[in-house]
Fold:
Amino acid sequence: MSLTNHFKAWLAEKDRATPLGTWLMAAAPATAEALGYAGFDFLVVDMEHVPVEVSDVAGILRAIGCTPAEAVVRLAWNDQVLVKRVLDAGARTVMLPFVQTAEEARAAASYTRYPPQGVRGVAAVHRGSKFGTIPDYLKRANGELCTIVQLETPEAIERLPQIAAVDGIDALFVGPGDLSAAMGHIGNIAHPEVQALIKKAAKDAHAAGKPVGIVGPNPDMVTRFLGYGYDFAAIASDIAMMTGRANDWLAVLKGQTAPVAAPAAAY
Structure:
């Protein structure tokens, strides 16, 4: 495991192909490793909607570390202790959900940085530092860690310029599932009002000079998001892709004329 954060470097490259990823909902190291070899640029380890602990995440990070893919850990909440434990477990890129204000974004940034830039607790020997073998880890870590905050309500997107301006926030991520729910269109991210706000968020992020990502349920939706200008994107999840393929094949074997429709939500 290297300290170099390739995901963060990708966001700074202007001529690189758009990084593409998927969500990991199975909490299975083998699945994570297989998808890492499948060609995804990044894999999102979900701690918000999956019953996993930090020890489970460490195992999944080890599996991803065997592959060319980069890991992004989506935490259960914007919590200082959880951030510290996940970083010590080896995460280099973290995503904090449901950030609503610049103040909450500043808190998130501080949790991921050592003093004086932040308040991350100091320990020398842990998986993040390769158990103390990375030279000058404590001095280099702040520059290599990548902090992403999720905007998941109309209010958060309205405050996007202020959130994007917070020092230490490396990228933004629009959560279309919660956004559609907050707008009164739960389960329907394709609703025109939701799509209009998703498109606006990409435009506002670019105006603020901040990379912005998103997740979509299928290639058509992700392609639409990329057309809006999103800088990185995830498609569906390991579980959604597995069950979707299973449904398609079962439909063929049972003589059904049409496969089961893909979910309307993101993953």
In short: The beta strands are 20-24, 42-46, 70-74, 93-96, 146-151, 171-174, 212-216, 232-237.
